[in-house]
Design brief:
415 residues; alpha+beta; two-stranded antiparallel ribbon; 17 helices; 12 strands; 56% helix
Length: 415
């Protein structure tokens, strides 16, 4: 063991050190631990939020959508679906229709997005079949004019499976002496789904494509073709190839383009939170500087003796750097362990706090999701540990440099 390391560790274990210095050392190490723990918890929650949000969005929507310019919709769906399904990375393709409507029942009225789907193909593209809580997709084919609602939407309308639901289109009902009349048709509720994302559960409804084409007078056209991929990050390549093969008047949209603003905001927020929480570690670094400065003042005589015995300025610097790095490393390790423990038990902690304070910490009608997600990402943890250790190391430089500049003659003059 080099003498710098041995002496530095001995200074940390010294029982002669004043109580004030020991207290500052504990506070410094605790500050680093608190900063690292806060960083890991917050970044894990934000990573989990982004992943859960992405999974729920992509579980309800397709990875790539093929559309056609114009108001008539896409009229060649029957020929295009097999062609699209043969593309590399495409695991499923299905036609769909999409319209804004009003839904009404005896107990309420709500606005919703009405999607027309092919029940046999939809399960290959989205997670709707797995999200069904009552009924099934097959009921859309087995029942004339059946409709599937989100669980929250059905609750808002006050309807159960088997009840009638009126679908109202604000245009297309014909001209009357009072102006344009809405188009109204009664459907039978045949199933309920729960995607786990309030925006979808309270605003989505599904009917069979033939019913949608008849109600909206679309003929044989559909709104577009949706595709599911085996790798969501291949969406731009698949969309580009499809656009190149089909050309005008067709165009494509990927899940990245459709949700660009949302995920860009999440990434920016995560970056800003990382920068803000690093400030906690920086504050703890000032504690390390204070600790080492007081140690240097306390060890002035020992430094002078070491220099008199031939210790170099670089050696003296390394002695006190060892002290600061150990303080930072211990704090980083404690913060790392604390952050991982809290994150892995976050569900239990949130439930406990909700019971104690009688609150709902994560209401689904306020947030996109219905629970607090979390995911510990190795790159995030590594980045936090590296940043903490680097800040702790930089905090040792100035006090160690001052110790190395000490003149042994001046230090021993009054000893």
């Amino acid at each position: 063991m080099r003498y710098e390391l041995m002496i530095g560790l001995r200074y940390l274990r010294s029982k002669r050190r004043g109580a004030v210095v020991s207290l500052i050392t504990l506070i410094s190490s605790g500050g680093v631990a608190l900063g690292v723990m806060a960083l890991i918890i917050v970044l894990s929650v934000m990573s989990g939020f982004e992943k859960d949000l992405r999974d729920k969005i992509l579980g309800t929507n397709a990875h790539v959508v093929l559309l056609q310019f114009g108001d008539e919709g896409l009229s060649q769906a029957k020929a295009l679906v097999p062609r699209v399904a043969r593309l590399p990375h495409v695991t499923g393709a299905a036609p769909f229709t999409l319209h804004q409507v009003m839904l009404s029942s005896r107990h309420g009225v709500r606005g919703a997005v009405l999607r027309g789907i092919d029940p046999q193909r939809e399960g290959r593209v989205t997670d709707l079949a797995r999200n069904m809580r009552q009924g099934s997709l097959d009921a859309l084919q087995q029942t004339d004019e059946g409709i599937i609602l989100g669980k929250s939407l059905a609750a808002a309308l006050g309807v159960r499976v088997g009840d009638p639901v009126n679908v109202i289109s604000p245009v297309g009902g014909g001209v009357t002496p009072l102006g344009m009349a809405p188009r109204v048709k009664q459907f039978k509720l045949v199933g309920l789904f729960e995607a786990g994302m309030y925006e979808y559960d309270a605003g989505l409804a599904y009917i069979a494509i033939p019913d949608a084409q008849a109600f909206f007078r679309m003929g044989t056209s559909v709104t577009g073709i949706e595709m599911k991929l085996d790798d969501i990050y291949q969406a731009p390549q698949v969309a580009g190839r499809l656009q190149e093969e089909l050309g005008f008047p067709f165009y494509t949209q990927t899940w990245m383009e459709m949700n660009k603003s949302l995920f860009s905001a999440l990434r920016l927020e995560k970056t800003v939170m990382f920068v803000i929480l690093v400030m906690i570690v920086l504050v703890a670094a000032f504690g390390i500087i204070s600790t080492l400065t007081m140690v240097v003042m306390e060890k002035t005589r020992e430094i002078a003796i070491l220099k008199s015995m031939g210790a170099t300025a670089a050696g003296i610097m390394r002695i006190f750097m060892v002290d600061g790095i150990v303080i930072g490393a211990v704090g980083t390790l404690l913060g790392l362990l604390g952050g991982i423990v809290v994150t892995t038990n976050l569900d239990g902690i949130v439930s406990f706090l909700e019971r104690v304070f009688g609150i709902n910490a994560f209401p689904g009608d306020v947030y996109f999701l219905d629970k607090l997600p979390h995911q510990v990402n190795t790159p995030d943890v590594v980045a936090v540990v590296i940043v903490s250790l680097v800040i702790s190391f930089l905090a040792t430089v100035y006090p160690s440099w001052r110790a190395s500049r000490l003149n042994p003659v001046e230090a021993l003059r009054y000893e």
